[in-house]
Amino acid sequence: MAKILVIDDDIGILDLVDNILSKSGHFIKKINQPEEVFNENLNYYDLIILDIMMPNIDGFQLCSRIREKVDYPILFLTAKVEEADIIKGLGLGADDYLTKPFGVQELRARVDAHLRREQREKTNSMSIGNIRFLMTSKECFVLEDKVGLTKSEYEISEYLALNHGQIFSKEQIFERVFGFEKDSNLSAIVEHIKNIRAKFLEFNEEPIKTVWGVGYKWD
Question: What are the residue boundaries of the Response regulatory domain, all occurrences included (predicted)?
């Protein structure tokens, strides 16, 4: 469970975000008067969701002041979709943005991805069965034997392993590992998965399963 602070002058949006994320087991604190943020102990939270267009103090100003106090993820939730606004927000210290109107699954996925990344950065290694990831050096081992993964193969493997049991489409994997390019070559993911499987099979391991018509998961 994560502690999430949501700041928006629209009470309807606050209630919607609360309803979505509380169902994932998170604790949600809602604020609809942005100036009240500084009455909070900001170090108590794990992530902030922040609107941009608000009265008295806008989200850009608020993000800049919050970033001086904490280093965990800040996610903009905004109707402002101009590239200049997005660049400005990221430059002020935001980690990501989601445009209104937003999908339930997209909000949940973005929040969970940032929380997992935070946890990963605080973790040096992870083991699942015989497979071990050294996250600082970006190396993967089966027992004591190193698996010769390329950088991209390692990133895909680590992403799936961190979320083992969850199914991800090629689009989701591409977005997480390679970025948010619209003209993505999704066949690259298929080829990377093929190569990863071949390399783990040399050690009699088959960690990545295909869920036909849906995507892939680390089993």
Answer: 3-115
